[in-house]
Amino acid sequence: MPIAEIARQVGYEDALYFTRVFSKSIGMTPRAFRNG
Description:
Homeodomain-like_sf
């Protein structure tokens, strides 16, 4: 599933903003997290 779709499903309209918030909270990008 694309990161943009995940962002929409959790309530973010802007995938770039979701990526920034995720990265700041988790310490890695959503893609890096998904890839393990």
